[in-house]
Amino acid sequence: MTDQVNPIIYAFDIVENTYYFFDQLEAEQAFQQAEVKGDYPEWREPTPMLELLRIKDALLGEFAKRIAFLELQLERAELGADSFDLGAN
User: Fold this and answer.
1) 20: nearest Cα among 41, 39, 40, 2
2) pLDDT score for 5
């Protein structure tokens, strides 16, 4: 039952793309096809899906903080620009 709730994800990278699979055999076949095509696939460690979801959530939280910080800096810069006229004679 645990495997159905938290399946293992098999994945490999080709350049900047990652390919994910629930089935190990399907992943191995896709990996071999990529090698035959002349791509250079690199295996990732098989990982439980819940762990990948925790990583995704942490990354999204970090990106949300950075976006909020950048928006705040932009608002401050816009407010600062309104306080004086650079084109005044």
Assistant:
1) 41
2) 79
